[in-house]
């Protein structure tokens, strides 16, 4: 593991970068937002390239970031109208999605702060962050830990947290992938182990329906190119200029939740998670749209209002979840 000074915050605090390298993968992690800044993986010829959308500087990240590689919380994805009720009490949280009035990614708190670092060994890095009670309107003082580990050809991200009061919690990493390391993502071959997805309303909030993917542009139960149906005549797609929807992962399945293959480079990525959902976002609002995709493993969007059992963290309990990104190559 190596440590370098990456940048300096506007208030003078240092932002450090830690690089994990096991010879098969190389990951660069920032203390700012506990961000996975770069991830190098080999193509079928062994060429190592960064497969993430990245920024050249902290200034660029702070000015233009759409959460690239950052840990998001307290509550990933959207909370309708930036409010929810817990134990009969309504909580008003930060409405940072201005157009729709929703709370997006917990107001951005976990993504915009510096995390404390605990290097464990050359291939394991743990970062911690404390969110005080009332931060962005959420109850309870939450202490969160994120551990990045290189295990062979896999990057494993483990999330742990606790709270001194009942609260809602839904953590994920918002990495933007492009396995070709260039160009658009239309030719990436995607498979998702999900029979249903969550359609959204005009404010990008799930309607509550679990809609079957079969026979629709949202069907990735068999491998197909991301670009095959992305511009299909479906209001769910035209509304957001592509995919930005939660897939309801088949629970208990022995198969990976997601498998992505890129035909030119030969890179293949499998995503294994213990979480019930994955948000497929196809970079619809990037400066150059559709040049990266996100696979945000998560409790379902707006879960504090619609599926509270997925995100309730009781006082004194241990929040713990793991997502694994396994890399390989195919012919």
What does the model show?
By secondary structure, this protein is mainly β. Helix content is 6%, strand content 41%. It contains four helices and 28 strands. The model has no long low-confidence stretch (mean pLDDT 97). β3 (26-30) and β4 form a beta hairpin.
Annotation keywords:
28 strands, 331 residues, mainly beta, 4 helices, 6-stranded antiparallel sheet, 41% strand
How are the strands ordered across the major sheet? 11-12-13-14-28-24-23-18-21
Q: Approximately how much beta-strand content do the residues carry?
A: 35-45%
Question: Whole-number average pLDDT?
Answer: 97
Tell me the Rg in angstroms. Answer: 19 Å
Shape: globular
Number of beta strands: 28
Largest sheet: 9 strands, antiparallel
Report how far the terminal alpha carbons are from each other.
32 Å
Number of helices: 4
Return the structural class: mainly beta
Low-confidence stretches: none
- Summarize the amount of helix as a percent range: under 10%
Oligomeric nature of the chains: single chain
Record the SSE blueprint.
Layout: E1 2-8, E2 14-21, E3 26-30, E4 36-42, E5 48-50, H1 58-64, E6 71-72, E7 78-79, E8 83-86, E9 89-92, E10 103-104, H2 109-112, E11 116-121, E12 124-131, E13 142-151, E14 154-163, E15 167-168, E16 172-173, E17 176-177, E18 189-192, E19 194-197, E20 211-212, E21 224-225, H3 235-238, E22 244-249, E23 258-261, E24 267-273, E25 277-281, E26 293-298, H4 303-306, E27 312-313, E28 319-329
Antiparallel strand pairs: 1-2, 2-3, 3-4, 4-5, 6-16, 7-10, 8-9, 11-12, 12-13, 13-14, 14-28, 15-27, 17-26, 18-21, 18-23, 19-20, 19-22, 22-25, 23-24, 24-28, 25-26
